[in-house]
Amino acid sequence: MKKRCDDRVKVSIIIPVYNVEKYIEECIDSLIKQDYKNIEIITVNDGSPDSSRKILDKLAKKDKRIKVVNKKNGGVSSARNAGLDIATGEYIMFVDGDDWVEPDYVSYLLNVAQETGSDVAVSVNEFTAFGKEQIRHDKIEVYTSERAVQEGLMFNIATGVWNKIFKADLIRRNKLGFNTKLWFGEGVTFELTVFQLANQVGVGHHKVYHQRSNPESATRKFNMGSWQCGLWALKQIRENLTIKTPAVYRAWDYHWWWGNFSICLETIKAGAIAEHRDEYRKAYREVRRYALRQLCSDATSKRKIIAMTSFVSPALAVRIFDKHMKRVAVK
Questions:
Q1: CB 49: neighbour CB atoms within 10 A?
Q2: DSSP secondary structure code for residue 141 in this structure
Q3: What is the rounded CA–CA span in Å between residue 316 and residue 288?
Q4: Does the pLDDT of residue 49 top 80, yes or no?
Q5: What angle do CA 265, 74, 95 make, to 5 degrees?
Q6: What pLDDT shows up at residue 299?
Q7: Most buried of 85, 141, 191, 308, CB within 10 angstroms?
Q8: How far is the C-alpha of 26 from the C-alpha of 98, rounded, in Å?
Q9: What is the DSSP string of 165-187?
Q10: Cβ(1)–Cβ(112) under 8 Å?
């Protein structure tokens, strides 16, 4: 998109900070260097026991756009809510403290939002350990709220609040925030709630966000409690759907199947079946219950094959998927 966004518009960027002393300086430095300057960087130190607070205070002295909020540990949802409470921008963005962004992170997503007239804008691509190259050709689209919810549940839009920009008025007018009972699945819950309320969602493909493969991240360490929290979040999402179309329900079924399959996958990989036998068995039953439904879903052919295999034997499907991911990692 060639037209520059309106630089009179202020953008608030909220960063929850907890035990990220190795990464937080690089994260904030990437925001300081944005080509779009009218931003405020709200860092929320969620009672981090490491040196993150000292680093934040040091950086705040160098750039007046950086605000530091110190609070008792309450989890990532509580931290993001604390940021929302003091945000003064017309748009809201979120960045995780162990990630970093491209110099056009703000300008690109703001431009997509403004050019499409959308309450929310997203990029469906990001830099990862498996995708380090920039895309060759960008494409800007507009999704209806229904399609955005469907694509979010199908993982075609990343299930998190990063790599997105939200109109602040939409959040404030509907008194939206993060569910503090959730520490896993809180991002997709917030995201899908906003999608359903948005007039539409602007969608780009250009990569502007780097998702770090941090082994210490809560989303990358096996924790059965976190996975169960994620399943509870999914149940809440279904109960609170306001867009109740067959396409959305099919997408939810897929997400539910995949969530339970992931529990089987991670439990097997961690060698923790004996330790979590009850949870594993419940997930195993749900995998078989929802597997055949994926024939009618919009899942990729590879995911459908895994789903069909999981109906016969979830354990065999786990081995096939794990081998596939190892081949991808080698490439």
A1: 10
A2: E
A3: 12
A4: yes
A5: 70
A6: 93
A7: 191
A8: 8
A9: EEEHHHHHHTT----TT-SSSHH
A10: yes
Query: For the purposes of burial, counting CB atoms within 10 Å of the CB of 269, is it exposed (0-12), middle (13-18) or buried (19 or more)?
Result: exposed
Q: Is the pLDDT of residue 249 over 50?
A: yes
For residue 127, pLDDT beyond 80: yes
| Domain-wise residue ranges, the chain | 11-210, 245-330
Summarised one tens digit per residue, pLDDT across range 301-311 is 989 999 999 99
Give the separation between CA 101 and CA 23, rounded to whole angstroms: 12
DSSP label of 136: S
Neighbouring residues of 77: CB distance < 8 A, sequence distance ≥ 6: 177, 178, 179, 180, 181, 182, 183, 186
pLDDT at 322: 75
Neighbour-count burial of 208, counting CB atoms closer than 10 A to its CB (0-12 exposed, 13-18 middle, 19+ buried): buried
Token couple for 159:
């299930």
Kindly provide the b/e burial profile for residues 78-109, where b requires at least 16 CB atoms within 10 angstroms of the residue's own CB.
bbbbbbbeebebbbbbbbbbbbbbbeebbbbb
DSSP at 64? T
Contact assessment for residue 212 and residue 98, using Cβ atoms and an 8 Å cutoff: yes
Backbone phi, then psi, for 214, in 5-degree steps?
Answer: -85, 110
For domain 11-210, give the fold: Spore Coat Polysaccharide Biosynthesis Protein SpsA; Chain A (3.90.550)
The burial class, CB within 10 Å (0-12 / 13-18 / 19+), for 24 is buried
Report the distance separating Cα 284 and Cα 265, nearest Å.
10
* pLDDT tier, 329 (very low <50, low <70, confident <90, very high otherwise): very low
